[in-house]
Amino acid sequence: MNDMPLTVSPTDHHSASDGDSIRRSTIMSPLVLRNTMFAKENFWKFFIKLHRARSLHLDLRLEHNGVLKSWYLPPHLFLNPTHSHQATSTIDHQLKYGPVERVIPAGLYGAGPMLLWDYGLWLPGSDVDQGLRDGHLRFHLRGSRLKGGWSLTRSFFDGRGEVWALTKEDDAEAWPLSERNLVAEMPTSVLTGKTLDEVAADPGHVAPPRSARSRKNGPHRNQPLLPFGDPES
Question: Is residue 9 part of a domain?
């Protein structure tokens, strides 16, 4: 499937009513994806942060029902469908903080530097609430770095939360048999190009800048519109 630009308005709201027939299907053909991916009623935002708190990890955030459903993962991502990434569920996060990269001050929850490793749109392959209850959620990502089909499958419970397995679907975006770690190959912010060390060296760093978050006239015609609004609003 050819790349398509992200054209998400910061004020978009997404109704589930017209997309139910799409989400009930567990397998989505390229034609269905192409025709529905950017219909306003069918997409939600996703964010992936690279975060160094007590340990280095990834934060996966999927927009659902006005919040970000959240999981944390080890700091590696593989496109090999046989590789399973352990993803532990965490508390829901506010949507407005999805895109923000900054240094969280010492003493606060998650203290340490974080950067925006990827962002974009996600399209569920079935009813999200049912999938979260049953422990299996299939979805399609359209990000700057991650694309194609993925699935989350609940494995077990531990003292920290539900432990899920994040797996790449075997599709055109997969790299079968590959051991390439995308995070090691691309350790920078997709938004600013900074590394975690560069973010950490500037405690006052906050991105995206307020002018970009609150821009009223939209981006340049060749620049994708970031799928978020002003976190300070």
Answer: no
Domain count, the chain: 1
Query: Which residues are paired to 113 by β-bridges?
Result: 103
Q: What is the DSSP letter of 225?
A: B
Q: Does some domain include residue 11?
A: no
Judged by phi (left if over 0) then psi (alpha if -120 to 50, else beta), residue 191 lies in alpha
Convert 173-193 to b/e letters by CB count within 10 Å (16 or more is b). Answer: bbeeeeeebbbeeebbbbbbe
In a domain, residue 4? The reply is no
| 30 or 118: which leads in pLDDT | 118
pLDDT tens column, 92-125: 999 888 989 999 988 888 889 999 999 999 999 9
Structural domain that includes position 124? 26-213
